[in-house]
Design brief:
Number of domains: 1
CATH class: Mainly Alpha
Strand content: 5-15%
Largest sheet: 2 strands, antiparallel
CATH topology: Arc Repressor Mutant, subunit A
Helix content: 40-55%
Distance between the termini: 19 Å
Structural class: mainly alpha
Strand order of the largest sheet: 1-2
Mean pLDDT: 92
Order of helices and strands: EEHHHHH
Number of helices: 5
Shape: globular
Low-confidence stretches: none
């Protein structure tokens, strides 16, 4: 697996750019993915999505379905796509340090 160096840290990633283990997640990872996703600044709404994804993953070992993410955050799916242009699976889960969700293209 390839490595990415960012913010003084080295991350091992898979072929889709997802971090190798959730335990490797740190704020520097968020900054790296933010840059790759073309997001200038992270708002409280970005962090709310990231926190919900991480909490759900810690409890269930998988990423939540999109409708669950939308319900728990209170954000419409369209708004989640505005926050994470590559989508909740690819962009938000990647930023949260989760593995690539099944069914994510």
């Amino acid at each position: 697996m390839p490595n990415v160096d960012f913010g003084g840290k080295t991350f091992t990633i898979d072929e889709d750019g997802f971090i190798d283990t959730f335990e490797s997640w740190c704020p520097e990872w968020v900054q790296h993915v933010k840059k790759e996703e073309g997001i200038d600044e992270l708002s409280e709404e970005h962090w709310k999505v990231i926190d919900v994804l991480q909490d759900y993953y810690k409890k269930n070992g998988i990423a939540p379905m999109v409708r669950v993410l939308s319900k728990v955050t209170g954000f419409k799916l369209k708004h989640i796509y505005e926050l994470f242009p590559s989508g909740p699976g690819k962009g938000a889960c990647k930023m949260a340090g989760l593995p690539k969700p099944t069914g994510c293209v």
